[in-house]
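P.,

For your records, the input lines for the assembly:
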Amino acid sequence: RLAIAANFTAAAREIVAAFEAATGHRVVASFGSTGALYTQITQRAPYHVFLAADQVRPALAEREGLAVPGTRFTYATGRLVLFSREPDLVTGEATLRAGTFTKLAVANPITAPYGAAAVEVLRALGIYQTVERRLVLGTNIAQTYQFVETGNAELGLVAASQVAERAGGSRWLVPQSLHSVIAQDAVLLTIGAENPAAVAFLAFLRSGPARAVIARHGYAVAE
Amino acid sequence: MSGPSSIEVRLTGALGTFALAAEFEAPATGIVALVGPSGCGKTTILRCVAGLLRLHGSLRVRGEVWQDDARGIFLPPHARPIGYVFQEPSLFPHLSVRGNLEFGLRRVPSAERRLRLEDVADLLGVSGFLDRDPASLSGGQRQRVAIARALLASPRLLLMDEPLASLDRASKREILPYLEHLRATLDIPTLYVSHSPDEVARLADHLVSIGAGSVRASGPIAEMLTRMDLAREQGADAEAVVDATVTGHDAEFELTALAFSGGTFLVTRTAHPIGQRVRLRVLARDASLTLEHQTGTSILNIFPAVVDEVVTDGASQTVRLDVGGTPLLARITRKSGATLGIEPGRPVHVQVKAVALVD
Amino acid sequence: MSGPSSIEVRLTGALGTFALAAEFEAPATGIVALVGPSGCGKTTILRCVAGLLRLHGSLRVRGEVWQDDARGIFLPPHARPIGYVFQEPSLFPHLSVRGNLEFGLRRVPSAERRLRLEDVADLLGVSGFLDRDPASLSGGQRQRVAIARALLASPRLLLMDEPLASLDRASKREILPYLEHLRATLDIPTLYVSHSPDEVARLADHLVSIGAGSVRASGPIAEMLTRMDLAREQGADAEAVVDATVTGHDAEFELTALAFSGGTFLVTRTAHPIGQRVRLRVLARDASLTLEHQTGTSILNIFPAVVDEVVTDGASQTVRLDVGGTPLLARITRKSGATLGIEPGRPVHVQVKAVALVD
Amino acid sequence: MDDGAELWAAVRLTVELAVVTTLVLLVIGTPIAWWLARSRAAWKEAVAAVVALPLVLPPTVLGFYALILLGPDGPGGWVAGLFGGRSLAFTFEGLVIGSVLYSLPFVVQPIRNAFESFGPRPLEVAATLRAGPRDAFWSVAVPLARPGFVTGAVLGFAHTVGEFGVVLMIGGGIPGETKVLSVAIYDYVETLQWTKAHMLAGGMLVFAFAVILGMLVLEKRLARRLR
Amino acid sequence: MDDGAELWAAVRLTVELAVVTTLVLLVIGTPIAWWLARSRAAWKEAVAAVVALPLVLPPTVLGFYALILLGPDGPGGWVAGLFGGRSLAFTFEGLVIGSVLYSLPFVVQPIRNAFESFGPRPLEVAATLRAGPRDAFWSVAVPLARPGFVTGAVLGFAHTVGEFGVVLMIGGGIPGETKVLSVAIYDYVETLQWTKAHMLAGGMLVFAFAVILGMLVLEKRLARRLR
Ligand SMILES: Nc1ncnc2c1ncn2[C@@H]1O[C@H](COP(=O)(O)OP(=O)(O)OP(=O)(O)O)[C@@H](O)[C@H]1O
Ligand SMILES: Nc1ncnc2c1ncn2[C@@H]1O[C@H](COP(=O)(O)OP(=O)(O)OP(=O)(O)O)[C@@H](O)[C@H]1O
Ligand SMILES: [Mg+2]
Ligand SMILES: [Mg+2]
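Structure tokens returned:
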């Protein structure tokens, strides 16, 4: 049984399908916000593997004895994209600097790693102060994207994975140098320690085919 | 009778399986009593007149058209200047007694108000609990509040559905004269549903008799009461009304003399001035017949009369008398009829044991 | 009178500003009438007897203790074998007429059921709309359903709060005999609130007169009716009841002879067998006095009597007569009294114009 | 597990959860509503307010507390222990408990109002016709309060179908066990599969519309039939 | 912006949103409830079911549709355009619209039931006392339906305070503008600051308890006073 961060859903489904086909194990995946999943895990939710959207909670799980020490690793690294559904709006860094938009959507920096990264980008560009009042915060990166996709915000700093398969619009892939790494960690949970399928899945996640899928979905894959 | 001082009702329609086809015309100057058995459609007619129910037909009150389906006219209830005392008191539970009384009063332009809250409340004996919650009132108290509320709406037509049914005699004795007084002074025509012959005889000027959804008979009260076909149904309760004039007062015995076409009634003293016209009510069972004028009897009112018509009904007979031009009814046993030889044309004396003054 | 065949009521308490202190004892064998002005506490007493309201005191019905605060006894209403006809019909709106009638019936063990739905429905004239919705009934129809419903609960004590107030005379004429019949055959004692003297005189065996929260007088009907203090208040409505025995029938004139201690009444023929005891009701205003026995009059019932007591009240006098041991009341004018020289001890003839058979 | 099967499981689970929750809501809510309507205790309004309180918390927060309550350290875990489990969370029973807690005010308040609306008279009449309190409750109070029950059921049902914060938190969205439709739609929306989300949402709306309309119409029919 | 000030802003916003939403709910819900109670149209139950439908959608999904509705492609954007904006999303007005949509059934159904409970008689009486339809509505129907209004207000208020899916979605969590308390608690829970979350939740509960109890008690008081 897997507990998977919602932003990884699409990629996860493909990987799960591939894993089931390859090994014959049956996998049940639950998706949710990392915070909610973690809370459930603290309440002994019957999850065996935890694919988080950050590094904090897997580490915390390890520390609290909820996860098997040493099984934690980064399975994907997120990339930020400045995206607008309008074809010519985003030209690059300059779009942000020009500041001719009314609303810029970012994820909540307090709860979402993508949000924290987005704020870092704005600070790095030195425009945080000027755009702060024009930010709208999505609870998570999915909502942030919805703000942009529905046109309520002209543009937003969203996950590259979200627009990977979307044609049209205009985008600028934010250089990784502008923000700290958005690493997503996976960990084997104590409950799943004895479950061979769980162990096998984590191994599969590191394998080539899985990494290919992850990359195709717009994530950077850690070395 | 048609025209500006009449009430014309012409209604047809059905409620479920009950079919109503009522048509009558009555003067819009006094009290029109609607009588008839339970479930015959009295309330239904009042509701139509109030505009709460819409059947087919037309309604005209004092020349104003309230409904005329042929012309597509239907005045909504709130635009009809009525006062309606429902069969059940139906007070507003969210308002105090005072709030209930003021509800209609407030909605009448002050120029058109004809009664003061305090007066009406006093007369109906509800001033003692103006600030109470209607739910805490007794049945009779609620009914009196409902009557007061309808009156305070200064209606130009009163609709009263058995307004006094739940009241004790003492209350009735206070309220009836007040209603009579209102009729006389304010000229509020009233459609009055009642099961009580006393009330009807006392109050009504016009009687509409209803049976199973249609009008059986309609006419002025004196005429209706002595119509033998109707009187027979009434049996012992048949009665007649006599219009008379006050001719004198006897201070010693506290009696009042009232002259009518057939003689002079002596009744318990009243406050009427000499010369005033009044109405008397004589129940058939209060009238007895003798061949001779008898003396040494406690009965004061004895008049020569001629038998007009006799209807036999089992052991009883209802006799219509011509008392100097005024019709009276007497109810006697068939045995007495045979013994005295009562038949049309026979001169007799009628002894009236009791007589009630109306108004 | 105390004991297994009596109803003992002893209640004190207050509803808001209204204080009740009622105490009376009545036989639990016939109909006990509660009379009194509007708002005097009649309904309150019935509610206490039903257990719907708890005031302080005790209640004992036929030897069973329903409430006794001294001993901490209070029987909940559903455990009291009563039938209650409320002042307002209060039918269940979610049930059909039949559903309403069956509600109480079903809850009585079949061994204890004393009436059949069909019979009661027929007698109360409600069989025509058993499947209708109560909301579609007329006021009188609803009331009749409520009476039928209470009867079908096979009560051992009936509580009726003005059950016939909203009914026309024709309905009353059908229902009253039925209630009398039930009283006679089923022996259901009844507390009966009524504003109608007719009903009271006709039905009641015992009268409890209530005034502003306390019992003014309580006693058997004959005694209560001729008590001069009470009769005086009644004025023209005072009356007496006479117990008599059927002695014969006259086929030709369809009359029935009823002997009592002072003579023989001739009344409209009844179906009673010879020898049966019946009750007659004589209104004071239906009795007139003569010095001589008069002939040639349509009045059949004339008896020698002796004046017992005279009370003057304005222009009128109420005269109590001793008619061979039976008290009767006559209401005459003061003028007649003076003319005839009416005073205690004076022998007279009493002419009874109308007499009503009770039962 | 393939998508279609998972969806079907979600549909089944949603219907089951909504139906069971609605029934439990009525069973629990009715006595509370009755007590609130009839009691003369001065503090009963405080109880009424408390019943409404779960509404005030954001669903995930409520879900969080529910989770603690149902989890191994709370009373739920103790109860689960009796049946050999370790927690009521992540079970269908847990979902029902959470949903009931959250939708209770929607059921209690309308039924209470309905109980209060007909006043004391019908129950008095019932008592004089030999109906004891329990009998009168079933034969008079409940039928007369029917509109309140329908409203309670409609709101409770709809809210349970739509709710997902609490359900997600308590249930964990385990396909076939605790993953209901609302969670499924949520997943679709979150993963930007909007066409699927639209279709699912449309299906849910149609289904819920049918059920709710059915309840409302049935009520009016019953009202006529029973008379 | 520091934490304390932000929290205060959230508190103020929550109260404002709940109060405004409740008022708007009553203003919009009352005519709908009145129509549902009085109309004889056969299809009115369908309207009643439609009013209940937003409940069936998970809040975030509803929020998503609301975003489309309020956004530049929907009518909301058109309205916003009139005032020089591009969208009603991320504004207080938008929050109110979303909350109203979502809580409408909680207000409409109880008020409708209340309007139906007193039957036609009081309005008939009012008409015979010269009260036109509008007058009778205010002077008779509304006071008699008071319990329904209170229930609607309590449920609408509590639900708006607690709701956060829709608000989160439409509001964009802008501190001081659209970030309400429920969103703040959510943030604390997500970032594992449970003590703060507990405190905030506790505070919300106490506040809501006071408001709801106040409404309920006031209603009973009023019931007595007005008589
Ligand atoms: N809460 C209250 N506050 C003050 N007075 C009250 C309250 N409740 C009842 N009363 C009074 O108690 C008295 C008794 O009422 P009850 O219903 O018993 O009268 P009743 O004899 O049945 O009158 P009716 O013939 O009019 O039905 C009434 O005067 C009524 O106003
Ligand atoms: N929906 C319905 N289906 C069938 N009959 C109906 C319906 N509604 C009313 N009625 C009948 O219409 C008739 C007239 O009722 P209405 O209330 O006018 O009588 P009423 O003369 O006022 O009688 P009461 O003196 O008993 O008050 C009654 O017989 C009643 O049963
Ligand atoms: Mg009627
Ligand atoms: Mg009474």
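Two observations worth noting. The mean pLDDT of chain E is 81. Residues 150 and 219 of chain E are 7 Å apart (CA to CA).

Regards
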